[in-house]
Amino acid sequence: MHDCAGLPARFATTARLRTLLVLAPVAGAASLPSLAWGQEPPAAPVLLDPVSVTANLVPTTAEAVGSAVTVFRAEELEARQTRTVADVLREVPGVALNRSGPAGQLTRLRIRGSESNQTLVVIDGIKANDPSAESEFDFAHLMAEEVDRVEVLRGPQSALYGSEALGGVVNIVTRRGAGRPGSGTGAEATAEGGSFGTRRGHAAVGSSGETYDFRLGGMGFRTDGVSVADARNGNTERDGYRNTTGFASFGLRPSERLELSLVGRYTDYRTETDGFVGGPGAVDDDSDTVGRQLFGRAEAKARLLDGRWEHVAGASVADHDRDYRGAGAVTARYEGRTTRLDYRTSLLFDTPAAADAAHAVTLAVQRERSEAVSTSAWSSFERSIDSTGFVGQYQATLLESLTLTGALRHDENELFEDATTYRLTGAYAMAETGTKLRASLGTGVKNPTLFELYGYTGTYRGNPALAPERGRGWDFGVEQEVPGLPMRVEATWFDQRISDLITGTGISSVNLPGESRIHGLELGLSARPVEAVTLRAAYTLAQGEDATGARLVHQPRHVASLDVTWRLLDDRATANLGVVYNGRQDDWAYDAAYDRSMLGLEGYTLVNLAASYRVTETTELFGRVENLFDARYQEVFTYGAPGRAAYAGLRIAY
Question: Which of 153, 422, 490, 524 is the most exposed place for a label (fewest CB within 10 A)?
């Protein structure tokens, strides 16, 4: 995480944001402008933040960000009573999310038509993708209680973040210290229960001061669930899920020039699953998955020359272990680990005599090892890949209105040819009209996964001859403040193409000749129609097809969302309405011989209600109803989804 103390004004963040983020050991945490039309931020949750540190390698004011970024803050997650990070990602323009059943089941995210393993997921600076699971990140097990912000950066970002960022980046930042801005000590505990035999608890304690901060705690979630195989197909048994997560963070500031930080997160989960048979699809059986995730990072940061020359060095590890069990015995085991060493240095300077410009030059090096181990009755392999990335970025802001940024990356890889990627962005802010124009152009690369190269099952064999997937994309956006109204609208047109796409053939994987293409329009609205109400809406129109001309699966043409939060009774109470529309999408159906054909899944609309009331300064009651109108739908063919559900709970905070 970058801190902006001592930087030129156009690169500087607010004191409040520094307090929030100064110790967050994050490779980047994106943010965009709040609803500020010449006024101070209101006491109620603002929609967006004024500085981005994910879109580039240095903190950049919102007016200077040329990329498409969406941000959700902790206050918004609390108003929605978001319980998994995946739930809020459904509201991001250009994002398609699919869960194979109820809570705890495989949850995949795709950005602008890219595959789920072409999106990089970062948690507190730790690369969280699993090398033993197609290099994907499964969002099913990431609880939202301790999340301070979620940021989604769309479009090819390999020039900054490497292989998995061909489609975009999802960055999750967790809370630090007492969990809110400022110094002091705090503790909180939450308990809730509701439909499907669901129980959830969360507790944390933290403190922060001038020279230190720490936060410790844990959370537990358990539900009896509903059938993974759709109940409408005659499957009635319940498939439960449990999740236990512990977390800790520590920070030390021995001087104004030096910061040290350490963060760790451990998750243990068990999810009951159903089998998959060619023809019927998902069917009831007695199987489950037991898994563990461990994330950790240590970071040191030094600032010289009054904060204009920054050095950041870090080391991180992400471990994933999964045991698949049937009839009480382990049938397959997968282990994935990513270890990473990184160093970054940034120099910021001004040239007042030359276009009144502010400059930022950044150099970085990242050394990474990805390892995967598979053990089963039909498969046993252990493989690893080492890679080193060298990154350079230059950013210039001219006449306080035009910002140009260029990044170049060269990756050395022991298995594949070296790859060079680039990214260019521009942003032009017209303060007199409240208009901002932005554009970005970038390339990306995605290396084949270890399983695609070497893995095998009873019916699948890897292909060591696979080549990396390559992509390029551009977008152009307009953001406009509405004169006289607390409202901002934005529109982005995007075009993204991927060549050498890796696809399964049923018995192996191959690179498809030609290129897949997706293009479309992303619309956004953020407003404060009255003092107590905040509103956010989004709509995406996307059209995608692969190199053969076939429609992309799990990529709906239309996606829309609306979220309205009303704070009342002198901010003691909050009411929230959330609506998510997911249009018709295509999926694969398999016959008895596992030959596949494409079919359509009907669109659906989910309506959620949430409310809370602060009884005393330390005690709050809350409740919510999910899927209010009991919509019946499938996000993956033959896999079920929960119907209407209600939950209530109590939060105590000191």
Answer: 422
Domains and CATH numbers, the chain: 9-653 (2.40.170.20)
Distance CA 154, CA 525 (A): 17
- Dihedral sign, Cα of residue 457, residue 458, residue 460, residue 462: positive
Asked if 322 contacts 336 with a C-beta cutoff of 8 angstroms, the reply is: no
* 554 SS3 class: coil
Radius of gyration for the chain, computed over Cα atoms and rounded to the nearest angstrom = 24
Structure tokens at 547: 């190199």
Reading the block at residue 473, the tokens are 């994309």
pLDDT tens per residue across span 106-120: 999 999 989 999 999
Secondary structure (3-state) at 139: helix
Question: Measuring CA to CA, which residue among 391, 389, 434, 393 is closest to residue 412?
Answer: 389
Q: What single-letter DSSP state applies at residue 62?
A: G
Distant-in-sequence, close-in-space partners of 635: CB < 8 Å, separation ≥ 6: 97, 98, 99, 100, 554, 582, 601, 641
Q: Would you give the end-to-end CA distance of the chain in angstroms?
A: 28
Length of the chain: 654
Q: Round to whole Å and give the CA distance between 576 and 425.
A: 36
Give the count of beta carbons closer than 10 Å to the beta carbon of residue 212: 16
Region for residue 179 given its phi and psi (left: phi exceeds 0; alpha: psi -120 to 50; beta: otherwise): left
Give the phi and the psi of residue 197 in degrees, each rounded to 5: 60, 40
**Is the pLDDT confidence value at 13 over 80?**
no
Q: Quick one: tokens of 242?
A: 């449990």
DSSP letter at 482 equals P
Give the tens place of pLDDT for each residue, 228-279. 988 887 788 899 999 999 999 999 999 999 999 999 999 999 999 988 887 7
Report d(CA 451, CA 190) in Å as an integer. 40
Residue 249 in contact with residue 215, Cβ under 8 Å? yes
Tell me how far apart the alpha carbons of residues 53 and 384 are, in angstroms, rounded to a whole number: 31
Alpha-carbon gap, residue 545 to 548, rounded angstroms: 8
What 3-state DSSP class applies to 20?
Answer: helix
Q: Which residues pair with 522 in a beta bridge?
A: 492, 540
Mean pLDDT of all residues belonging to the chain:
88
Residue 345, classed as helix, strand or coil, is strand
* The pLDDT of residue 24 is above 80: no
Token pair for 585: 């999408």
Spatial contact of 217 and 205, defined as CB atoms under 8 Å apart: yes
Q: Where are the beta strands (DSSP E) in 546-593?
A: 558-568, 573-582, 585-590
In the predicted structure, residue 379 carries a pLDDT above the cut 90: no
Distance CA(389)–CA(165), nearest Å, equals 13
Both tokens assigned to 375: 């053990």
pLDDT band at 180 (very low <50, low <70, confident <90, very high): low
Contact, 482 vs 490, CB < 8 A?
Answer: no
Q: Give the model confidence (pLDDT) of 555-598 as tens digits.
A: 999 999 999 999 999 999 999 999 999 999 999 888 877 778 88
- 124-173: per-residue pLDDT in tens? 999 999 999 889 999 999 999 999 989 899 999 999 999 889 999 999 99
Contacts of residue 432, defined as CB under 8 A and 6 or more positions apart, other chains included, come to: none
